[in-house]
Design a protein that fits this description.
about 425 residues, four-stranded antiparallel sheet, globular, binds the ligand Cc1ncc(COP(=O)(O)O)c(/C=N/[C@@H](CCC(=O)O)C(=O)O)c1O
């Protein structure tokens, strides 16, 4: 089939032929979505494979979900808070929608001490993906959007859902009205801004999911200047910033002038193993203003108060423990463990003579299979090695010919995956 064909099952748009129909029209934006959300699809393929080969010893390197236990110092803090809820003195009801003051301060001091972000600019949430959707509500349907290609599918899919995108174009696998900024190894994973159209919003993820590339200071300076010149707002996703081990910036606010053009979204998921606990944050600087001079932070606060009632108090107690000196030290060891996994995976694919990217500043390895459909690569690896990956095409047309391999896993499973991969073509 031509490379541009999505060999994913079409989104189930069939109408039910039985049962009572209401007179409520379907949201036309939902109808534009081309398939199910990428990660549940991967889980479905994984389930089907495990049904077909129950004894295969499936290794799950697909969805980027952490696997290592949360350090006891953090779970004890959550348990203690939870238990206190069973006492008259310790019981607490609704907290501040913006988050617990101590946690907001701890986030500001831990991640933004030297860049002038204040605690009142930090909004604690139930996760970065949730904040991305709330930011979409904030921006509304009438803004233009640019995304990196490839990038985390949450940006594009939420843009479609809120009505920012036009129709999906089969011929190129892109939605109308969305600017896809090619970020491949050919252009050092950074868009050519001289040929990039102006958009109101620029989603930018660094370290990038799926390529694992962390943008350099010089690149981010270009991005901030580009946004300033165009009057755009950058939504900067730093969910993997704690994996950066070189001199790449960990926050967009390390770049002078960024507070006038950027919002930063981040998460406890990937460095604290809070994927199921659910805790994240968004920084909206007071200096960020709309066209009419109105501060964005005031509207975001209104969204948070109206559409979100605050993160779990138990999760926030855990978040505070994560940012304690001992908690953060324990978590850094887990991040290093996953990065060790990434090195093992990268070496396995390199031993096959394949070009491998990422894995140094992120828990994802990005592998190039020139001339091949990424869904075919995904299926071949799954069938031959019983290892689940993610087809690069799921992250945008720029992901074709690639697969993303997650480094989240117990070491012995990663070593087994390495053994199987080294024999992929034998
Ligand atoms: C760049 C980026 N930003 C936000 C998220 C989700 O963060 P949380 O909602 O805080 O767990 C993710 C999560 N990504 C995982 C899980 C995806 C999912 O299951 O939604 C993945 O890419 O496999 C991410 O990659």
């Amino acid at each position: 089939q031509p490379k541009t064909t999505w060999n994913r099952p079409k989104f189930n748009n069939e109408k039910s032929t039985v049962g009572h129909c209401t007179r409520v029209p379907r949201n036309a934006n939902m109808e534009k979505l081309q398939s199910g959300y990428l990660f549940p699809e991967i889980c479905m393929r994984e389930f089907e494979h495990s049904q077909k080969y129950p004894q295969a010893g499936l290794i799950r390197l697909g969805v980027g979900d952490t696997t290592e236990p949360i350090p006891d110092i953090i779970t004890s803090a959550m348990a203690e808070h939870a238990h206190a809820l069973s006492t008259v003195q310790g019981y607490r009801g609704y907290g501040a929608e913006q988050g617990d003051t101590a946690l907001r301060k701890a986030i500001a001091e831990t991640f933004y001490r030297d860049v002038g972000v204040k605690a009142n600019e930090v909004f604690v949430s139930d996760g970065a993906q949730c904040d991305i959707s709330r930011l979409q509500m904030l921006m509304g349907p009438n803004v233009s959007v640019a995304v990196q290609d490839p990038s985390f599918p949450g940006y594009i899919d939420s843009s479609v859902i809120v009505g920012q995108a036009g129709m999906f174009q089969d011929e190129n696998g892109k939605y109308e009205n969305i600017v896809y900024m090619k970020c491949g190894h050919e252009n050092n994973f950074f868009p050519d801004l001289s040929t990039t159209s102006r958009t109101d919003i620029i989603f930018f993820c660094s370290p990038n999911n799926p390529t694992g590339y962390a943008a350099s200071r010089q690149q981010l300076q270009q991005l901030v200047e580009f946004a300033k010149a165009n009057g755009s707002i950058i939504v900067y996703d730093s969910a993997y910033a704690t994996y950066i081990s070189d001199e790449s910036p960990k926050s967009i606010f390390e770049i002078p002038g960024a507070k006038e053009v950027a919002i930063e979204v981040s998460s406890f998921s990937k460095f604290a193993g809070f994927t199921g606990v659910r805790l994240g944050w968004t920084v909206v600087p007071e200096e960020l203003l709309y066209l009419n001079g109105f501060p964005v932070i005031k509207d975001y606060n209104r969204i948070v108060c109206t559409c979100f009632n605050g993160a779990s108090s138990v999760a926030q107690a855990g978040g505070l423990a994560c940012l304690s000196k001992d908690g953060y030290r324990a978590l850094s060891a887990v991040v290093d463990y996953y990065k060790g996994n990434a090195g093992i995976i990268a070496d396995a694919f390199a031993s096959l003579g394949l070009k491998v990217y990422g894995g140094k500043n992120a828990p994802y390895v990005w592998v190039h299979f020139p001339g091949m459909s990424s869904w075919d690569i995904f299926s071949e690896i799954l069938e031959k090695t019983h290892i689940v990956t993610v087809p690069g095409r799921g992250f945008g047309p720029g992901g074709e010919e690639y697969i993303r391999v997650s480094a989240f896993g117990q070491r012995e499973r990663i070593l087994e995956a390495s053994r199987r991969l080294k024999n992929l073509y034998k």
